[in-house]
């Protein structure tokens, strides 16, 4: 019996369900294989990708405590500014396979493949294998999805968990199952432990759809929703409880918070602060003072109440976001409306309409929040929209295709196709120098296909012969003909005189409602009916020709609509991505805040010439740093005109800053610029390559460790490794990315003073002095950022100043190190330094 069961399981995996057409399972396996190739090919070229999270994975591979809390280093000084589930995945992989780019990035790619498979399964259950395949294909080829499933930000794991939650909720709706709904709650809870409040955006949608649609009594529906809510709270709350109950002295500081509290991080920096822009300690968004000149290119054009790009309903379609995710967004919205219209007469428990409500609600709610949020917002966040876009395109397109004999359905498909290719051509026009042949090709082929779709009903009638599909039997009774649905691959019984608006097929898959959510479409699982008489051979031939012609038109339409996003997806996969804020698309694509992050050390480039009116910050009076000139090219944009002041672009000279802080703002930028540095704080060492070009200025140069990790030389690594086991931290430096570069190079713990932004009060100056007195830190590495942003802590600046005053600087391959075990001799000043030539 066991062997037979295994054979049946293997057959089901290889061949799929018995009622699927033969092509369905091979097509799914081919889609998953192609997705895996797209997400895995050349993955190691991105190196550590986001070093901020890679360092946490490296720390977790060495310390179980660091893995549990998501610490930035194995010494457990501070955590990353997100909950740890994504770090658990990467850290466990690094423990098993060793710390490498592949061991950190492959789990993200596999999460992408699994997301495509889960989305296919969710859509297929309510519609057809064709709808599921199309949904999975759209998700797999969305440029921002390719980017994030080849990157190590938490978004890849978040998407997988949310797609799983939607699948479980739809299974719950299908059979009024409290267990499936509880599983959805658990998955959302772990999604919360991946990226906090963003996971909750789909919760109201799932709960309301279940309350309305589930085929059981209202009281039972309410109980199931309440139990699912308890499952969500338990799956997310246990970790918060542990962190809050453990004494602060026994765990790392909670990065991103100002008071060492996970609840504060949840509700503030990673919660409501994202909506309102009130994010204490962040270096973006609004603020009381001005900003250094040129910061506009880094943080986006200041407009409509936020420093993170323009808010409003057009945000998802603008120059920064459109090419990431919006290729099929208008089509998804149009097909959502069409799907709800087609299913308007379905029973309350109709599964197809429930699916439209779940995925449509996901898209509308998440898209609305992204459009209006005034806090920290980055283009790659929009990967959370990709599953909903894929599902709606798959469900809506197949629903209309199955009704293609009707002029209204065919006309809707034609309008959607034409509008989509025009929009795609506009997006391609934003990178005119990249593959210029694509734009006219998409327009010509797509518009021709749209015209053919509009004429499809006439083509079908002409191919089959004029008159209704009716065959008279010997008894003279009305007969029913059988046609083959070329898309679904199943024999669908079509009544010769049936009213497509009122006919309902009984099916166990719909709990008494139309299985595909469209009246007039027969159920392939229902009883087979035999025509009362033979079908004339010319009519059979005509139907085959009509089906072939229809398939050709459908294939050309699909190719035209997907050519743009797929080309961007391939360009994304072919481009290495590193740094904190990557973007999808070809390397010449402009319009984003970070055209290609991780460029040369040319300082902050020319700012975006935003037209915001608020704020009159004055130009800083400090002088640029005195260090060696960086090699990156500064941007050519104009000085920022928004609410951060009128300063001039930074000059990109890393080294010892001698100037005073700028008078207009509350944040000091290292490595030159008009704001200068506090006395004695070293600038960032040069890193990366030459800056790229964009629409509004050059690529950002070395941002003092805020956005990109430095590359440590062999001599610096040797110093950090020397006798490192005798110290809790081989080194300390300001900013998590700055620390991550040295930690990953030397594989030793490096304390990230102030966390990601350098604005967390961890450690305080007194704590740092105590660590030094106890001999727990070997070196302090100059560089990184300092000061406060939006009310953050000044501890990092105080620590840097104290080190400079009390220890001697040594320059090794452009990096400034202070040996904290050897205080400066009496009577000498800490500003004296020595250099080691290499």
Automatic annotation (TrEMBL):
Tell me what topology the record assigns in the membrane: Multi-pass membrane protein
Which residue ranges are recorded for the region named Disordered?
467-486, 495-538, 580-707
BP GO terms, sorted: lipopolysaccharide biosynthetic process; response to iron(III) ion
Query: Which Gene Ontology MF annotations are present?
Result: pentosyltransferase activity
The reply to whether Membrane figures as a keyword in the UniProt entry is: yes
Major localization class? membrane
Query: Bias category Basic and acidic residues: which stretches?
Result: 467-483
Q: What is this protein called?
A: Glycosyltransferase family 39 protein
Identify the residues that the record assigns to the Glycosyltransferase RgtA/B/C/D-like domain, covering every copy: 81-234
Tell me the compartments it is located in: Cell membrane
According to the entry, every stretch annotated as the Putative mannosyltransferase YkcA/B-like C-terminal domain falls at: 717-806
Q: Low complexity bias located where?
A: 495-514
List, alphabetically, the GO terms of the cellular component aspect.
plasma membrane
* Positions with biased composition (Gly residues): 588-678, 686-707
Q: Which residues cross the membrane?
A: 23-41, 126-149, 156-174, 180-213, 225-243, 325-342, 354-373, 379-401, 408-429, 441-460
Species this protein is from: Frankia nepalensis
State the UniProt keywords alphabetically. Answer: Cell membrane, Glycosyltransferase, Membrane, Transferase, Transmembrane, Transmembrane helix
Pfam (any one): YkcB_C
């Amino acid at each position: 019996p066991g062997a037979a069961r295994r054979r049946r399981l293997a057959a089901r995996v290889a061949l799929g369900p018995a009622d699927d057409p033969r092509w369905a399972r091979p097509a799914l396996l081919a889609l998953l294989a192609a997705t895996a190739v797209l997400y895995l090919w050349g993955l190691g070229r991105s190196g550590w990708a986001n070093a901020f999270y890679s360092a946490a994975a490296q720390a977790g591979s060495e310390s179980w405590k660091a893995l549990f809390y998501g610490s930035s280093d194995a010494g457990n000084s501070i955590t990353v500014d997100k909950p740890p589930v994504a770090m658990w995945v990467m850290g466990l992989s690094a423990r098993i396979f060793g710390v490498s780019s592949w061991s950190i990035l492959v789990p993200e790619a596999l999460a992408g493949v699994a997301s495509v498979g889960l989305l296919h399964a969710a859509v297929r259950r309510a519609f057809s294998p064709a709808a599921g395949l199309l949904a999975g294909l759209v998700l797999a080829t969305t440029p921002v999805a390719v980017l994030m499933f080849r990157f190590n930000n938490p978004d890849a794991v978040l998407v997988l968990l949310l797609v799983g939650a939607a699948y479980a909720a739809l299974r719950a709706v299908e059979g009024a199952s409290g267990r499936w709904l509880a599983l959805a709650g658990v998955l959302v809870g772990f999604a919360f432990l991946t990226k906090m409040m963003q996971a909750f955006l789909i919760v109201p949608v799932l709960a309301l759809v279940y309350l309305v649609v589930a085929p059981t009594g209202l009281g039972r529906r309410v109980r199931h929703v309440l139990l699912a809510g308890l499952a969500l709270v338990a799956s997310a709350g246990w970790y918060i409880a542990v962190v809050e109950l453990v004494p602060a002295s026994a765990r790392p500081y909670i990065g991103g918070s100002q008071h060492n509290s996970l609840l504060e991080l949840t509700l503030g920096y990673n919660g409501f602060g994202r909506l309102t822009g009130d994010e204490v300690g962040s270096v973006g968004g609004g603020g009381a003072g001005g900003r250094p000149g040129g910061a506009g290119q880094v943080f986006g054009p200041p407009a409509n109440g936020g420093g993170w790009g323009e808010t409003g309903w057009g945000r998802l379609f603008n120059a920064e976001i459109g090419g990431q995710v919006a290729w099929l967004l208008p089509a998804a919205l149009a097909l959502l409306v069409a799907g709800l219209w087609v299913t308007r007469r379905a029973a309350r428990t109709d599964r197809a309409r429930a699916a439209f409500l779940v995925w449509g609600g996901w898209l509308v709610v998440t898209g609305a929040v992204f459009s209006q949020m005034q806090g920290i917002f980055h283009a790659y966040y929009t990967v959370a929209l990709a599953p909903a876009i894929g599902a709606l395109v798959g469900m809506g397109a197949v629903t209309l295709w199955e009704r293609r004999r009707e002029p209204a359905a065919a006309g809707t498909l034609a309008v959607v196709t034409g509008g989509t290719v025009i929009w795609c051509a506009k997006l391609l026009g934003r990178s005119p120098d990249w593959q210029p042949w694509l734009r006219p090709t998409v327009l010509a082929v797509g518009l021709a296909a749209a015209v053919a779709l509009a004429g499809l009903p006439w083509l079908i009638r002409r191919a089959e012969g004029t008159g209704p599909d009716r065959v008279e039997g010997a008894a003279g009774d009305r007969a029913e003909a059988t046609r083959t649905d070329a898309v679904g691959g199943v024999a669908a019984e079509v009544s010769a005189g049936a009213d497509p608006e009122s006919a309902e097929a009984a099916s166990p898959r719909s709990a008494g409602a139309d299985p595909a959510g469209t009246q007039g479409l027969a159920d392939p699982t229902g009883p087979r009916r035999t025509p009362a008489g033979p079908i004339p051979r010319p009519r059979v031939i005509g139907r085959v020709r009509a089906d072939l012609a229809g398939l050709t038109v459908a294939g050309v339409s699909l190719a035209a609509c997907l050519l743009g996003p797929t080309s961007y997806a391939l360009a994304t996969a072919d481009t290495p991505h590193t740094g904190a804020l990557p973007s999808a698309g070809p390397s010449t694509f402009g319009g984003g805040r970070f055209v290609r992050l991780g460029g040369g050390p040319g300082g902050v480039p020319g700012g975006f010439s935003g037209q915001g009116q608020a704020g009159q910050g004055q130009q800083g009076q400090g002088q640029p740093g005195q260090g060696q000139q960086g090699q990156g090219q500064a941007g050519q944009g104009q000085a920022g005109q928004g609410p951060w002041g009128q300063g001039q672009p930074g000059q990109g000279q890393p080294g010892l800053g001698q100037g005073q802080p700028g008078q207009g703002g509350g944040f000091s930028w290292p490595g030159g610029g008009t704001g200068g540095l506090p006395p004695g704080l070293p600038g960032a060492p040069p890193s990366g390559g030459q800056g790229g070009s964009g629409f509004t200025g050059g690529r950002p140069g070395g941002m003092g460790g805020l956005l990109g990790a430095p590359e440590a030389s062999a001599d610096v690594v040797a110093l950090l490794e020397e006798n490192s086991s005798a110290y809790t931290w081989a080194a300390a430096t300001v900013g998590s990315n700055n620390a991550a570069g040295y930690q990953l190079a030397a594989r030793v713990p490096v304390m990230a003073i102030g966390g990601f932004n350098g604005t967390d009060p961890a450690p305080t100056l007194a704590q740092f002095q105590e660590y030094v007195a106890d001999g727990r830190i070997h070196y302090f590495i100059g560089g990184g950022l300092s000061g406060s942003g939006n009310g953050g802590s000044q501890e990092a600046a105080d620590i840097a100043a104290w080190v400079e005053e009390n220890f001697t600087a040594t320059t090794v391959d452009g990096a400034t190190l202070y040996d904290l075990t050897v205080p400066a001799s009496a009577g000498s000043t800490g500003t004296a330094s020595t250099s080691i030539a290499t």
